């Protein structure tokens, strides 16, 4: 039976069905929980991106992107001194978001927001003057981008586990960005299909560049290429209208691929409603967050039993029980990128310092002798029951002292995981701490206000203005809500 | 309990490169010199350059090219230094010029094909043309540098394809130009820009993260983007590497549990390239390229030659080509889903249809540019012929451009059977196009958009490429 408003009678393909849903979803479909969760994601992503603009990788891509310029331009987060064409703004801001591996993570595994937000914000600035994009339009497009990613991830059993072959943001992230941009551009059904088809031909980067300086480009490119796909489709370019149906389409990236149609639009069940994201508390691979919590806890116990002093030289060995994830198993990381992808590094840092922060990954801290001494004593074990899935993995840290005593603790769910979400104050604190590295207090406050009231904002260009650091006072009249 | 190693301070600076597959590629790209190009390789690669330009020029008249160009012009205007095929007044920024020209090159599926299967030139030439115009006057590469960089781009593609046995057959999952083409473009550009060995390594690493498009967009308007993006993104990778971007230095090596370039293959066995000492044998020496005689997928060329042969027999038999005498047309072809289309409805589908190309050849006695126009595709006589086609897949007809054949049999109402078979079509590497045929194809293509003097200038320039002092002149002449 066709439910009210569903156009699924016309399409017999999954690709067509996706196009229908992208077209058909509107603001009324957004539930309160989805709105709330997605706004948290938006805020976190902006903060992480602003912080990321100061990284070396970001400087390099900015220099590169400056060789292009045009009349139409979009904001580079944290900068008022120059702008870039929308495509390159999406690219650079996307790189910024993932530059420190500080952005959100979902289940099945991907970094959903970084691939979508930079693209939709950049695109929102590229419309002709008369056309205003409201905060609600932006929020809806964002959620379409997230939803499409989640749905695609569910088409393959492989996606449940931490990846080995293709880096998920480059596969589903590109598709999500494309869908979100198609939504914002209000493309018709045919063009939505073509957007997905074209985007597929940009998707997919191998995992081996994780833990290198190139990894952030995965998210930057996902955002940029998704936007490009939507723009090309908007100009009439056509691709394979069964791109999601075929094994030689998006199926090419998986060994088991079983696409399904989306639910009908009536009371649309958003995945974000059922499954929240994890927000990171420090900039490193999600797997290390379990390690950090367990290690901090072991450190506390150690200190308690030896008069509030850490008995470093009495430590004989450190054993980490973690799942088997080759690209996060690095006994001796030498760069910040490697350190962010090292169970061992995070365990030892947390043991030394008590907690992890942005500062844990500076060059001095990566190379300090005390840390290297501890790293020498650290080894990994992979218990059979510790599956490499962000839904079910755990970490056990156990420190053995010279006298034979062993102190250990286990973390099943770190603070920030979807089972134990960050409280509002902590999310805001993370944002403030990040954003204040490049923006004045007025702008950071204004961004928080704007995102919290996003669905009421009449013209979302204010968000871009605050992102470039412009003062809220001057623009206060633009904050008038509907 | 000696399993924790004595901690060794990480050695960051290396005096001699470790012999990984990736570093051997970087060494090759960095160290190979013009002297390493043999006569055969120079000759063959110049033919490829000429054909690729011609194909790109005629491709600049297509709709897909139009869209790509409009897109690039609307979104970007500055630092417009690089020329666009067939548009003398237009310049774009280098990567977008590469993109647009790459799209032009593959827009009609008229560009060259190699074995193992890929379209090598379209992925490399546009990037080099664009880059040559980007460099300041004092450092313009000469024709020899250009020719060398072009061959580096081909060589890297060929070597990478030899890492997997899957590449020998017509592809099913990832479209090869989008996989190896991107890497070839990165390598070629790195060579032209004289990047250091470390930078060459990183160019390859960055390029890998930009490679790989699924097959499903073949036979659609989006397919030309695969070449456009391969050449553009490979160029981008080299430019980023030149600016210091770093990637995984083991990207071509086998990394268990975490895929690098191997992600695109089920079976992957990489081997190091030998550093070119006195003698390096380029793959192009042993394995030539196929040039297409008409704008369609390479597989079509076998059935067309077979169809033309049986058509002649039929005309001798019946006095003229009389379709009403034909009961069934049997095509014996290899199994390959994306080129088996009984009733194609678009030009892109028609270029990827054994049935369409066989019937067009039977009907018209030739297949050319005009065969793929809207009116040609939908004509009644052709549909009638298509209705009579059945397809067979003999076991000995493998989906492999080195081994496949095409056979067309006409089963007449009278009971007679006429057959034509083609093992090696004219233009295949076993039966290469003569110089005259290649020039004829180029002149025919280029004349769609360029005047005669310019056409002859390009021919002369490419023929004497090694002697050109400023290779950016080639790009400016387009």
UniProtKB/TrEMBL annotation, chain A:
- Record keyword Lyase present: yes
Intracellular or extracellular location(s)? Mitochondrion
Q: Where are the transmembrane segments?
A: none
Identify the domain of life. Eukaryota
Q: What GO terms describe the biological role, i.e. biological process, of this protein?
A: inflammatory response; innate immune response; positive regulation of antimicrobial humoral response; tolerance induction to lipopolysaccharide
Name where it mostly resides: mitochondrion
Q: What class of enzyme is it?
A: lyase
One GO term describing the cellular component: mitochondrion
Q: Can the keyword Lyase be found in this entry's annotation?
A: yes
The chain positions of domain MmgE/PrpD N-terminal read: 17-259
Which molecular-function annotations from GO does this UniProt entry contain? Answer: aconitate decarboxylase activity; protein homodimerization activity
Q: Reaction(s) catalyzed by this protein?
A: cis-aconitate + H(+) = itaconate + CO2
Coiled-coil residues:
none
Instruction: Cite the MmgE/PrpD C-terminal domain residue spans from the record.
Output: 282-454
Keywords (alphabetical) are: Antimicrobial, Immunity, Inflammatory response, Innate immunity, Lyase, Mitochondrion
Q: What does this protein do?
A: Cis-aconitate decarboxylase that catalyzes production of itaconate and is involved in the inhibition of the inflammatory response. Acts as a negative regulator of the Toll-like receptors (TLRs)-mediated inflammatory innate response by stimulating the tumor necrosis factor alpha-induced protein TNFAIP3 expression via reactive oxygen species (ROS) in LPS-tolerized macrophages.
| Name listed for the protein in its UniProt record | Cis-aconitate decarboxylase
Question: From what organism does this protein derive?
Answer: Patagioenas fasciata monilis
From TrEMBL, chain B:
| Pfam families named in the record | MmgE_PrpD_C, MmgE_PrpD_N
Please list the GO terms describing molecular function. Answer: aconitate decarboxylase activity; protein homodimerization activity
UniProt keyword annotations, A-Z: Antimicrobial, Immunity, Inflammatory response, Innate immunity, Lyase, Mitochondrion
Domain called MmgE/PrpD C-terminal: residue spans? 294-466
Q: Where is the MmgE/PrpD N-terminal domain?
A: 24-256
- Check the record and name the InterPro entries matching this protein: MmgE/PrpD_sf, MmgE/PrpD_sf_1, MmgE/PrpD_sf_2, MmgE_PrpD, MmgE_PrpD_C, MmgE_PrpD_N
Q: EC number(s) for this protein?
A: 4.1.1.6
A single GO BP:
inflammatory response
Catalytic reaction list = cis-aconitate + H(+) = itaconate + CO2
Q: What is this protein called?
A: Cis-aconitate decarboxylase
Task: Report the source organism.
Answer: Patagioenas fasciata monilis
């Amino acid at each position: 039976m066709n439910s009210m408003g569903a156009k699924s009678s016309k399409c017999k393909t999954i690709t067509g069905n996706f196009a229908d849903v992208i077209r058909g979803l509107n603001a009324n479909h957004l539930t309160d929980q989805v709105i709330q969760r997605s706004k948290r994601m938006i805020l976190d992503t902006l903060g992480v991106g602003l912080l990321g603009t100061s990284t070396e990788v970001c400087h390099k891509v900015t220099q590169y992107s400056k060789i292009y310029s045009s009349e139409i331009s979009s904001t580079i987060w944290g900068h008022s001194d120059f702008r870039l064409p929308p495509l390159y703004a999406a690219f650079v801001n996307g790189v910024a978001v993932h530059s420190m591996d500080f952005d959100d993570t979902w289940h099945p595994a991907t970094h959903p927001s970084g691939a979508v937000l930079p693209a939709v914000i950049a695109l929102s600035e590229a419309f002709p003057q008369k056309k205003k994009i409201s905060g609600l339009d932006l929020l809806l497009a964002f959620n379409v981008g997230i939803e499409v990613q989640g749905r695609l991830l569910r088409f393959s059993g492989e996606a449940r586990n931490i990846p080995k072959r293709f880096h998920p943001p480059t596969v589903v992230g590109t598709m999500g960005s494309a869908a979100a941009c198609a939504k914002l551009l209000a493309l018709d059904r045919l063009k939505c299909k073509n957007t997905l088809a074209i985007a597929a031909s940009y998707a997919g980067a191998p995992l081996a560049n994780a833990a290198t300086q190139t990894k952030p480009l995965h998210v930057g490119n996902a955002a940029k290429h998704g936007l490009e796909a939507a723009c090309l489709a908007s100009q009439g370019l056509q691709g394979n209208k069964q791109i999601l149906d075929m094994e030689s389409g998006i199926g090419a990236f998986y060994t088991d691929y079983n696409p399904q149609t989306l639910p009908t639009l009536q009371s649309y069940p958003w995945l974000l409603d059922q499954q929240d994201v994890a927000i990171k508390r420090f900039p490193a691979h999600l797997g290390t967050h379990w390690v950090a919590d367990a290690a901090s806890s072991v450190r506390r116990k150690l200190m308690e039993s030896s008069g509030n002093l850490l008995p470093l030289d009495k430590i004989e060995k450190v054993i980490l029980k973690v799942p088997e994830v080759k690209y996060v198993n690095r006994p001796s990381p030498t760069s910040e990128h490697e350190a962010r992808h090292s169970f061992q590094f995070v365990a030892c840092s947390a043991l030394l310092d008590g907690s992890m922060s942005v500062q844990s990954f500076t060059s001095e801290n990566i190379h300090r002798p005390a840390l290297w001494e501890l790293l020498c004593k650290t080894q990994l074990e992979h218990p059979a029951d510790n599956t490499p899935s962000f839904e079910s993995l755990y970490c056990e840290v156990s420190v053995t002292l010279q006298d034979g005593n062993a102190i250990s603790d286990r973390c099943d769910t770190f603070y920030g995981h979807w089972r134990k979400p960050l409280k509002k104050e902590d999310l805001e604190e993370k944002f403030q701490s990040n954003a204040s590295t490049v923006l004045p207090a007025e702008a950071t406050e204004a961004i928080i206000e704007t995102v919290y009231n996003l669905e009421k904002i009449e013209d979302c260009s204010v968000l871009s203005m605050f992102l470039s650091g412009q003062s809220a006072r001057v623009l206060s009249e633009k904050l008038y809500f509907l | 309990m000696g399993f924790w190693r004595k901690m060794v301070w990480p050695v960051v600076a290396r005096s001699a490169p470790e012999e990984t597959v990736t570093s051997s590629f970087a060494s090759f790209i960095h160290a190979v010199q013009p002297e390493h190009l043999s006569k055969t390789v120079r000759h063959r690669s110049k033919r490829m350059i000429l054909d690729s330009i011609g194909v790109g020029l005629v491709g600049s008249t297509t709709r897909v090219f139009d869209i790509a160009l409009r897109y690039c012009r609307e979104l970007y205007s500055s630092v417009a230094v690089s020329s666009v095929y067939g548009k003398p007044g237009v310049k774009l920024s280098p990567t977008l010029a590469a993109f647009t020209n790459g799209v032009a090159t593959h827009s009609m599926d008229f560009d060259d094909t190699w074995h193992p299967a890929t379209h090598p030139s379209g992925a490399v030439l546009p990037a080099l043309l664009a880059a040559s115009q980007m460099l300041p006057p004092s450092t313009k590469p000469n024709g020899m540098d250009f020719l060398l960089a072009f061959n580096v781009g081909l060589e890297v593609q060929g070597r990478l394809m030899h890492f997997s046995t899957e590449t020998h057959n017509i592809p099913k999952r990832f479209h090869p130009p989008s996989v190896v083409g991107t890497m070839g473009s990165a390598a070629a550009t790195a060579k032209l820009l004289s990047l250091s060995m470390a930078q060459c390594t990183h160019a390859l690493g960055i390029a890998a993260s930009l490679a790989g498009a699924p097959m499903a967009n073949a036979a659609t308007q989006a397919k030309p983007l695969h070449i456009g993006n391969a050449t553009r993104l490979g160029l981008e990778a080299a430019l980023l590497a030149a600016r210091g971007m770093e990637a995984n230095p083991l990207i071509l090596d086998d990394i268990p549990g975490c895929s690098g370039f191997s992600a695109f293959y089920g079976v992957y066995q990489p081997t190091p390239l030998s550093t070119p000492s006195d003698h390096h044998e380029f793959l192009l020496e042993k394995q030539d390229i196929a040039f297409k005689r008409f704008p369609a997928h390479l597989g079509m060329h076998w059935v067309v030659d077979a169809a033309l042969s049986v058509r002649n027999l039929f005309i001798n038999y019946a006095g003229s080509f009389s379709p009403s005498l034909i009961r069934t047309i049997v095509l014996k072809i290899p199994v390959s889903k994306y080129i088996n289309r009984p009733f194609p409805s678009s030009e892109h589908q028609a270029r990827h249809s054994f049935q369409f190309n066989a019937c067009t050849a039977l009907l018209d006695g030739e297949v050319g540019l005009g065969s793929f126009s809207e009116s040609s595709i939908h004509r009644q006589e052709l549909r009638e012929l298509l209705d009579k086609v059945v397809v067979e897949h003999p076991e000995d007809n493998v989906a492999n451009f080195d081994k496949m054949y095409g056979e067309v049999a006409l089963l007449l109402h009278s009971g007679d059977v006429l057959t034509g078979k083609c093992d090696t079509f004219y233009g295949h590497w076993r039966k290469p196009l003569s110089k005259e045929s290649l020039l004829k194809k180029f002149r025919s293509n280029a004349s769609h958009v360029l005047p005669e003097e310019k056409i002859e200038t390009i021919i002369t320039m490419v023929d004497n490429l090694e002697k050109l002092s400023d290779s950016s002149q080639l790009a400016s002449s387009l």
